[in-house]
């Protein structure tokens, strides 16, 4: 459900070249710069097989580019294009709006406690290799 709301908000602010899952990929690239597919998978929790198809579509849309790693010829780095950089402000607005929707009616203390428990769940899942 949150994915549908996120994509609706993206469309409302004129973003129709990527969806919510692709936005997660762009977000980690905006934050970290060039990354390998493995690193993107770890940071987004997306499977490599899913990522490959998504990256192909994003490359065709002109959002990312694949760059050979100068230090390791077998490695390919993924980087955002100037076109993708132009969407960051709108993406951040949508992300902030989603937080407003998620936390509507929550007190600051409730938000802090909720996020603390979510981090605990994520750590538990990571221990299981998920």
UniProtKB/TrEMBL annotation:
<keyword id="KW-0804">Transcription</keyword>
<protein>
    <recommendedName>
        <fullName>HTH marR-type domain-containing protein</fullName>
    </recommendedName>
</protein>
<dbReference type="Pfam" id="PF01047">
    <property type="entry name" value="MarR"/>
</dbReference>
<dbReference type="GO" id="GO:0003677">
    <property type="term" value="F:DNA binding"/>
</dbReference>
<keyword id="KW-0238">DNA-binding</keyword>
<feature type="domain" description="HTH marR-type">
    <location>
        <begin position="1"/>
        <end position="123"/>
    </location>
</feature>
<dbReference type="GO" id="GO:0003700">
    <property type="term" value="F:DNA-binding transcription factor activity"/>
</dbReference>
<keyword id="KW-0805">Transcription regulation</keyword>
<dbReference type="InterPro" id="IPR000835">
    <property type="entry name" value="HTH_MarR-typ"/>
</dbReference>
<dbReference type="InterPro" id="IPR036390">
    <property type="entry name" value="WH_DNA-bd_sf"/>
</dbReference>
<dbReference type="InterPro" id="IPR036388">
    <property type="entry name" value="WH-like_DNA-bd_sf"/>
</dbReference>
